[in-house]
# Entry
Amino acid sequence: MKLDELLGLITKFIGGILTFTVLIFLFLVFLWTNPTVFSNKSVNPEDWQPKNPLTDIPDDQKHKLVKYGYQLVVESSKYMGPMAENPKVRYAGNNLSCQNCHLKAGTTRGSASFVGVSNRFPQFRGRENKQGNLAERINGCMERSMNGKAMPVESTQMKAIIAYMDWLSEGVPPEKEAEYKGFVKVEIPDIKADLVKGKEIYTLQCIRCHMEDGQGMRPDPKAKHLYPPLWGTDTYNHGAGMHRVLTAAQFIKASMPFEESTWDNPKLTDEEAYHVAAYINSFPRPQKSNPEVDFPDKKLKPVSTPYGPWVDKFSPEQHKYGPFPPIVEWYQKEYGIKKTK
Ligand code: HEC
Ligand code: HEC
# Structure
């Protein structure tokens, strides 16, 4: 072997070692910045569980905002509603909590959970006829479900709620996102909702917690409701999603009676959920201001939106109590729009 050949071999050898070291280094950097990449692979999506905010929020500085967001969702009235000490942060106008509808702090299937929600925004919103972000969606519930006023995007409260939702949405297997999203399906009955039947179901299934007058129970008037009100002054307003009979029926089917119904084992039939949803929505409640500006493109209004104007000729009564299939068919025929709610 000549000297220059030997030198060539040595150079190659050193070059190889260098390349190898650089590769190892890059790999370590990758692991360092993506710590869960391998641990997650071993979790079978079927065994996956959403994070539990009670036990899983780390007790460090970084997660302080997440913890605060959790508290806001669970005790909205105390921290950002009528009971808040600082009048400036009384954004919610009623004493409901987000989790009265988004059960178990938004971790339960069948009640529009927050698990994965951050991954779905921004999205197109018919109510505003534009691309909307998560903060705008949260304010949609603030102004309607919570009968309050929009929180500034830069407020600590808004940032905290979003931080909490982001935390819940981390690492959700794609297979699980759909399962945790939205409500369960309800076959839309081909009849008008029957308030007499609704009252019978209410008496049998709901009265023991929400009471005959629909005001629920609040044993300690300085604390949140034990059982939240369904109508009257201290609940969601007439512009809320829950005020649509079809949306309320979907929520009720999977979630009520509380702790008896589940998304995969509902207690009421679709028709029962429909009649009782109409019953609870037949009573007076707070009125949202300027409801006529909702859905700038009126064709996109859900069929059971109980307030006008509509582009169709169906009566306000029919938009509130059905029967809905004729309205659904009309939009399909007239505009080729397939409505599900
Ligand atoms: C009275 C019941 C009720 C309350 C209280 C309520 N919401 Fe909602 N929320 C709903 C309904 C119903 C929907 C779905 C509406 C629809 O389908 O159009 C929804 C949807 C949402 C969504 C979108 C979910 C998704 O998967 O796209 C977010 C985010 C949200 N709410 C946040 C909140 C927050 C934060 C609070 C408390 C400040 C709150 N909500 C209080 C009933 C409620
Ligand atoms: C065992 C008690 C119980 C029964 C029975 C029950 N609920 Fe509820 N309901 C609750 C509780 C508790 C919440 C709030 C959940 C939370 O904060 O975790 C709630 C929330 C609700 C909400 C959303 C919040 C609001 O104020 O609008 C609606 C709507 C509702 N229930 C309707 C019904 C209907 C309809 C029935 C009968 C089919 C029913 N519930 C039966 C306990 C009950």
